[in-house]
Amino acid sequence: MTRRLDVFVDHSRCVGNAMCLATAPGVFAHNADRQSEVVDPAGDTEEKILEAAFNCPTGAIRVEVDETGKRLFPRAG
Amino acid sequence: MTRTDLDDLFAPEVIADPYSYFAQLREADPVHWNERFQLWVITGYEEVVWLLRHHELFSSAIMKHSTSPPYPPVDPEDLPLFDEVREFRGDQLVEQDRPEHLHQRGVVHEYFTPTAMESWRPFVRNAVRELLDELEPLGRMDVLTVFAAPLPVRIIAQMMDVPFEDRDYLRELADSILYMNRGEPWRLRPLTEGMRGIVEYAAPLVEERLECPGDDFISILARGEKTGVFTRHQVLVNTGLLLFAGHETTMNLICNGLLALIRHPDQWDRLRADPAGKARLATEECLRYDPPVKSTQRIAAEDVELGGRTIRKGDRIRWIMAAANRDPSAFPDPDRFDIGRQPNPHVSFGSGIHYCLGVALARMEGQEVFRALAERFPRLELATEEVEYQPSIQFRSLKSLPVTWTQGDQ
Ligand code: HEM
Ligand code: SF4
Hints:
With 77 residues, chain A is α+β, with helices and mostly antiparallel strands. Helix content of chain A is 19%, strand content 25%. Chain A is built from two helices and five strands. Chain A has a three-stranded antiparallel β-sheet with strand order 1-4-5, with helices on one face. The longest helix of chain A is centred in the middle third of the chain and has 10 residues, at 46-55. In chain B, β6 (304-306) and β7 form a beta hairpin. Chain B is α+β, with helices and mostly antiparallel strands. Helix content of chain B is 51%, strand content 9%. The model of chain B has no long low-confidence stretch (mean pLDDT 93). In chain B, α12 (167-177) crosses α13 and α18 crosses α20. Chain B has a five-stranded mixed β-sheet with strand order 1-2-8-5-3, with helices on both faces. Chain B is globular and about 60 Å long. Chain B has one domain (5-404): CATH 1.10.630.10. The A-B interface holds A 12, 15-19, 22, 33-34, 54-59, 74-75 and B 52-54, 102, 105-106, 109-110, 112-115, 343, 345, 349-353, 355-357, 359-360. Residues 60, 93-94, 105, 156, 241-242, 245-246, 249-250, 253, 292-293, 296, 348-350, 354, 356-358, 361-362 of chain B line the site of protoporphyrin IX containing FE.
């Protein structure tokens, strides 16, 4: 059983660096302004989604567990 | 004034105050053809961001695609040296287009992410403290030479995992690379000497790290050679890129930011009231208000419409952060220095696929420096009537920043 994730991109931070698209192409796509949008939060493995969030140079990606709302990235603290 | 004068990007007035010059240009002609240097000068915020996010239309491979000679002109007998510059620069990550750029950036990207860099904060904080402990009793310093220049080299040398004693030599090399975008006609000589120096210095290190890899970034680059992403030459010139990309830039962030804080005592007092809490946004405002990098280049990969003008395939382009960061359509009251400004979507680190790789490190260095200065010094005074800048179109670099302070006062 894989758990459902919620994935958010903060457009005030996203600079269209596109690393998330390269890491988890099933989840992220660029909009007309070349900022990242979440097209399918289940489009890739949890590992890949967290890697994309970790690799975002501006920390624009937030990942939570859908059922509990528990934040997986950025980690607290 | 004639049109030609207006297009002189190296005029002393423009070097001293790029903001008035580029603001005029932005208002009159945000996508401007500069006749004198035969290139487009892009000054509007919206146009700059659009350009940077359309990497397929605007190539970063300047050295590969442009056959024009260096500008401003160099001594004719030095022209053969420009081939060396092409070879060095042209093989660096920052000059690659996709798909190569994505593969190459993928090798080093993870090392520099915000989370990964956070583990370096104690080291950075300590390096700042050590330098300031030595300087504080003196009562005066040239911020540039004794603080802003040694700090980034100290940190990057640690990330390269090279001996402590090599720092002075690395700084010498880094200083010669500063001639990259300057105006002096003899600049290719010190520049190419520095380039040869870094290749010679890095070659044995790369051999060593291929044999026994560590977690330093030369080992990471060398791993890229093992996986077939980099050639050996690319490993060497990218070692140079990582060493130098954060040198003059961070130096300028510290000096230009501190100068702005000295010139705006009300903002200095705001920072002093809560250095730990205010350093983050204050650093962003320093980056916006007087950006370390004024402009960089692109070259049109095809004919493109931008701001109602047609840019032709092969045309050279300069995009100007110093103008975009002061565009009133993106920043209310843009000429005001406000250390609490938020949001602050400045383009001082670029945008799109080439967005600065070292951004998290640069931000951290700025935050730790402005915080420590505000914690230690109640008031810093400028010890000169006028400050002077290097004649560079790419960098906003002070020649020196002498300051004084009174010890022991509160
Ligand atoms: C305040 C300090 C800094 C500023 C203002 C700055 C600015 C920039 C800018 C504007 C670019 C984009 C260039 C372009 O698109 O043409 C860039 C790229 C780059 N920066 Fe920085 N930088 C800083 C510090 C650093 C540091 C500390 C490092 C590394 C240790 C670094 C490494 C790089 C690299 C490798 C690139 C090329 C990235 C790519 O092409 O994908 N920078 N930087
Ligand atoms: S990696 Fe971050 S900055 Fe880059 S497109 Fe994705 S969300 Fe935006």
